[in-house]
Specification:
By secondary structure, the chain is α+β, with helices and mostly antiparallel strands. The chain is about 30% helix and about 20% strand. Helix 3 runs parallel beside helix 10, helix 3 runs parallel beside helix 18 and helix 6 crosses helix 18. It starts with about 25 loop residues before the first helix and ends with a helix. InterPro entries: FAD/NAD-bd_sf, P2Ox-like.
Length: about 650
């Protein structure tokens, strides 16, 4: 920022007025990130123990664990984008919902023609990346179910057990739950505290929602009828369990003061100060050593934004530098951590290593969307009050063909939608898939059930891949193909049918929302641009007979499996998933591990399963950090023993 407004020699209008058009990125650079000058110094003189590419969940989890356990470690975090939001958009208010969707996404790949030519209702695209500091963490649902062993059949049993078994008092899943501030929807901190204070009956006056009676009624209804439904399921899909949803929505300090969706930007910025070297009562030799190669002393975490990593320079299975849009940096003794999601690291590895197995597999979750409403008087236990009532329930299924899907069920009863519009948006369990103002209108006497149904794309689908193409750009040079196989199509169809069946079974003739997307799919399936009778009922509540047969949403989420980790080599399909990463999270190149290149995130998936990926990949990032700390300690011990042995040998030789 030219003539920075509060520097030592330039400020307060002296000797000139200073900048009149301040830029948010320049301000953030001076306050938190590396400025151009600091980055130049870092490239030329700094030394790091770890270089992390990415600032999302995994990058944050790895950095936090390292900095808290290794009090001497220094980290450079590189983010391709700039600063957009400080926290999850839902924490900021309803107006920020406009940021959800393509307006904020980039698509660093080419989509194949065969995918675009797939016939409705099975044509899909993939949601894009969020190229900003914090990644997708400020635009996610915050649902964090923990998978069970039965849901991870294709995964390495060794890996899965290592995440679930307690290492001391906690498991890696337990640690991830704490890190992300995850709570069950029937034990949300703000709800518990209101009950302690005896204020649960005054929620309307307090402008707070109730996660209570209504949620319990719906949960118990599903739980009580699970076995009966499974025994007569038309699609033969089986409901595995009924759980209150796990939501990353605590305040992080266990005060329970609010419903606060977790995101990484503020958490990472807090790390910069909280993990800095102490500057008081430090001996001069220690301080001198810590200052060497650290132009940002006393900070141990340095953050560089608006920097695209274009190539990993490597030789003899070792990464030795990064070619970036802001110049080249040598890694020296640093370990490189790729924490950039699923597709960017695959492209980078394909181009940097000419890797033939990266991107061979691709999985994701296909989506169906069904919204129903039932009259509140059918739920006899529902008490009359003026509260905005909400709930969130997780319902995982096994389809008849062995594939998995789950329903993210959001529940809402709003007796005053005009008054509560902002409140509802602020506290909704899944604002990406929620009741719209149009659906809430005239639904004061109803309970609305919003079902986001997510099903796994088969990892053995030969029509799904993410392969390198002829584009030389290491950030965009891949071709995404995602044509659902016959198995995938059957799963996708059964997702909608099963959801309809269980809602009909439990709620006796609910009404369904017929959307313009439903109409769009029906037109394309019919091969026409206009269906007069269906056109007239768009965006309205309809009876069972008029609901759509095609609740399929033409977009996928939760992409994964471009760099599969070592897995259950031959699964129940008797097919093999070639591992690209070993159980130490190292990239395997030409049959051997790359010594200092480690990968985390959903690119490692052996299957997408019936769960949202964030909790699992955060647990794995924490495990990776512990593995690197352990390896470093072992290396230091070996080095010290070698040095001691050498000294003893010299002493022994001096006798002659």
């Amino acid at each position: 920022m030219a003539n920075f407004a509060s520097s030592k020699n330039l400020g307060n209008g002296y000797p000139t007025p200073g900048p009149q058009r301040p830029d948010i990125q320049d301000i953030m650079n001076h306050a938190y990130f590396l400025t151009d000058g600091q980055w130049k110094e870092a490239k030329e003189n700094n030394s790091y123990d770890y270089v992390i590419i990415g600032s999302g969940f995994c990058g944050y989890a790895f950095a936090k664990r390292i900095l808290e356990k290794d009090k001497e470690a220094k980290i450079l975090m590189v983010e391709r984008g700039g600063f957009l939001l400080p926290t999850h958009f839902q924490n900021l208010g309803a107006s920020y919902k406009k940021l959800v969707g393509p307006i904020s996404e980039t698509f660093p790949w080419s989509l194949s023609q065969s995918t675009m030519l797939e016939k409705a209702p099975y044509r899909v695209t993939q949601h894009g990346m969020l190229p900003y500091f914090g990644g997708r963490s400020f635009l996610w649902s915050a649902w964090c179910p923990q998978p069970e062993k039965a849901q991870a059949e294709k995964w390495s049993p060794v890996l899965f057990n290592s995440l679930t078994q307690k290492n001391g008092e906690t498991s890696y899943f337990d640690d991830a739950i704490k890190l992300l501030h995850v709570h069950k929807s029937n034990a949300l901190p703000f709800s518990k505290n209101l009950k302690k204070l005896g204020l649960e009956n005054n929620l309307d006056q307090l402008r707070l929602p109730e996660y209570g009676t209504l949620q319990d009624i719906i949960h118990n209804l599903f739980a009580k009828n699970k076995d009966d439904f499974n025994s007569q399921s038309v699609t033969r899909a089986k409901l595995m369990k009924v759980e209150y949803a796990s939501l990353a929505c605590g305040d992080g300090e266990n005060k329970g003061i609010d419903f606060n969706k977790f995101s990484t930007p503020t958490a990472i910025l807090n790390l910069v100060d909280s993990t800095a070297f102490p500057t008081q009562n430090v001996d001069s030799d220690t301080e001198k050593r810590r200052k060497e190669g650290n132009s940002m002393y006393p900070n141990r975490l340095h953050i560089l934004t608006e920097c695209v990593v274009e190539e990993i320079l490597n030789e003899n299975n070792q990464a030795y530098g990064l070619l970036t849009s802001r110049g080249t940096i040598a890694l020296n003794n640093a370990e490189l951590i790729l924490a950039t999601g699923t597709m960017p690291p695959a492209t980078l590895i394909q181009k940097s290593f000419n890797h033939q197995s990266a991107g061979k597999h691709f999985t994701a979750h296909t989506i169906s969307a069904i919204t129903a409403r039932v009259k509140k008087d059918k739920l006899s236990e529902l008490t009359e009050n003026a509260n905005l009532q909400m709930g969130a329930i997780y319902l995982p299924f096994f389809a008849e063909n062995g594939q998995q899907f789950h329903i993210q069920l959001s529940i809402i009863h709003d007796p005053n939608p005009n008054k509560n519009q902002e409140l509802a948006m602020r506290y909704m369990p899944d604002v990406v898939s929620t009741a719209s103002p149009e659906q809430l209108k005239d639904s004061e006497n109803y309970v609305i059930l919003v079902c986001a149904i997510l099903g796994e794309l088969d990892i053995h689908n030969e029509y799904a891949s993410f392969n390198a193409n002829k584009d030389s750009d290491a950030t965009t040079g891949s071709l995404l193909r995602c044509n659902p196989s016959l198995k995938d199509k059957k799963t996708w169809d059964d997702m909608g049918k099963t959801t309809y069946d269980i809602l009909d079974y439990l709620f006796d003739d609910p009404e369904y929302w017929y959307s313009d997307l439903n109409y769009y799919q029906e037109c394309h399936v019919s091969g026409t641009d206009f269906l007069p009778e269906r056109y007239a009922i768009q965006n309205s509540w309809v009876k069972k007979e008029e609901r759509t047969r095609y609740p399929h949403v033409p977009a996928m989420v939760h992409e994964g499996s471009t760099l599969p980790i070592e897995n259950n080599n031959v699964d129940s399909d008797n097919k093999k998933i070639e591992a690209v990463v070993n159980l130490d999270y190292q990239l395997i190149n030409q049959g051997k591990p790359v010594s200092n290149l480690f990968i985390t995130g959903a690119s490692l998936w052996a299957q997408s399963g019936a769960w949202n990926p964030t909790l699992t990949m955060t647990a794995m990032a924490l495990q990776l950090a512990d593995k690197r700390i352990s390896a470093k300690e072992k290396q230091q011990t070996t080095s010290e023993n070698t040095e001691s042995t050498a000294i003893l040998e010299l002493i022994d030789q001096s006798k002659f």
